Amino acid sequence: MFNTVKAKSVGDVVTVLIEEDSSATSEVKLDIANTSSAEDAFTPILNTLFKTDKFKSLDGYGGNTTTANQAKVVRTTKSTDTITAQVIQLLPNGNLVIQGKKVAINSGEKAEVLISGIVDPRFITNSGEVSSKYIANFQFAVVGKGTTSSSDSEGIMNKFMNVLF
């Protein structure tokens, strides 16, 4: 009498709600200090020869160098989308292997969203949806092609430099 739209066999579809947040921080701190000095054997000979200490300031020349560098990179990515995936394999324990692709073309720009992973049917809602947070081995990629992502949008100097180098 009541039936749900939950996927349970190969060929069924599942709507995946992509809710991915990722953040990465990388911090580097580098401190280098270097000191050097040199003494020569020629200055004492000059001081002895001329019976003076005028040439003493020539001895002990050298220098020091101090370098301090710091860099910090913070990357934050938030992706939200909805994509329908197809069950391509039923595992012995009842879990579903899914795979999906969504293509959007707008003004010459092509964006493809590719997903795959393993879904426990218990996480699929009665309306056939599952959050990406509940997909094991979830793989998510966005690939784009078009005028924005190609070298067509480069300036003439960048194109010239790319040809040279």
Element string (H = helix, E = strand)? EHEEEEEH
Strand content: over 45%
Alpha-carbon distance between the two ends:
70 Å
Low-confidence stretches: none
Model description:
- This protein is mainly beta and 165 residues long.
- The protein has 2 domains: 13-22 and 79-164, no CATH class; 28-72, no CATH class.
- 10% of the residues lie in helices and 55% in strands.
- It contains 2 helices and 6 strands.
- It has helices at 42-49, 156-164; strands at residues 13-37, 62-90, 96-106, 109-119, 129-131, 135-145.
- A hairpin with a 5-residue loop joins strand 2 and strand 3 (96-106).
- The longest helix is centred in the C-terminal third of the chain and has 9 residues, at 156-164.
Features:
single chain, 165 residues, mainly beta, 6-stranded mixed β-sheet, 2 helices, 55% strand
In short:
Helix content is 10%, strand content 55%.
Topology, pairings included?
Elements: E1 13-37, H1 42-49, E2 62-90, E3 96-106, E4 109-119, E5 129-131, E6 135-145, H2 156-164
Parallel strand pairs: 1-5
Antiparallel strand pairs: 1-2, 2-3, 3-4, 4-6
